[in-house]
Amino acid sequence: MAKRGAAVAVAEAKSRAWEKFGEAMEKDYRSAPKRFWQTVRRLRRGRQELAHTVYSGDWELLMSTGAIVGPWKEYFEELLNRTYGHSKEEPEPGDLGMDLPISGAEVAEVVKQLHSGGAPGADEIHPGYLKAMDVVGLSWLTCLFNIVWSSGAVPLEWQTGVVVPIFKKGDLRVCSNYRGITLLSLPGKVYSKVLEREIRSIVESQIQEEQCGFRPGRGTVDQLYTLARVVEGAWEFAQPIHMCFVDLEKAYDRVPRGTLWATLQEYGVGGFLLRAIQSLYQRSVSLVLIAGSKSDLFPVRVGLRQGCPLSPVLFITFMDRISRCGRGVECVEFGGRIISSLVFADDVVHLASSSSDVQLLLGIGSRPSVKRLE
Length: 374
Fold this sequence. Notes:
Layout: H1 2-31, H2 33-44, E1 54-55, E2 61-62, H3 65-79, H4 104-112, H5 127-131, H6 135-151, E3 160-167, E4 178-183, H7 186-203, H8 220-236, E5 242-247, H9 257-266, H10 271-279, E6 285-290, E7 293-294, E8 298-299, H11 311-324, E9 332-334, E10 337-339, E11 341-344, E12 347-352, H12 355-365, H13 368-373
Parallel strand pairs: 3-6
Antiparallel strand pairs: 1-2, 3-4, 5-12, 6-7, 6-8, 9-10, 11-12
Helix pairs in contact: 1-2, 4-7
Protein name: Reverse transcriptase domain-containing protein
Domain Reverse transcriptase: 147-374
InterPro entries: DNA/RNA_pol_sf, RT_dom
């Protein structure tokens, strides 16, 4: 009995330690990227103990390194390809317009901003390699980007994500108790950042004020201040106010791509630029890296690419299009403006003068809203 009790206590202590480790990794991912990637590199080299046993889909316990790769691949392949409803057919980019080349100055500026501690993607190119480039190296990289831009085709390595499982909580042997961090090719990320700057210059002025996520000079404090003032005003003037707080689960992973491309066209993103974005998703694939072993490649057909510099601006543009569907609902007036929602990336607060109008806003923001965009 004492032996069994000790074993249970040890197992519980290990579980708690892994939970704390997972929470710390999530925190570092957002606020201390250098420390996060240092930890990821240690995990990749096998210095940190990972779950070398895992349950298969039929709950058989697998223990060899070769055997555990299969269940991890199956889990992430299913997770990253969940679809809800249907998406539009991919639209053509339309008239490509002028083929304006990417400048060396743009590329040099983005390379300069790379984090030195970033982990490499499938091509194993480290940030230090790019940051050490002289004028000749940067000119070659710029030339490559212009070939990719003009042809509308990118290397497969740029479309390949390396998924590293990071423990969250619960049983170490259950795949669903991990979240995946995706590592992408660094040259591909530099190219994506160049595209992101161009896209943002087009869509930023069109995105409504209610969205404060992934926008320069804005943050959660702005939304908290606005929400507090709205509540104070409603209290002072005895006006009814109804609120509903919504956290959209795995919203990044579930954006229907065909609908996203159509939305970008509505916002004025087309031609070479739209084709360049689509090229990064044309053959989008991933593999899982666990305990030093890699799984086979599997396709990823839905959602935005985690870790890609393009994803934030694409996501808030998509969310803005959904938010606009709420116009016409009786919402809250504040400072001469009508406010239906406050949004920070995928966290939403719906505001209305009645519970029935909040229900309408919830209906607009739910899965069927994707069909409304179509």
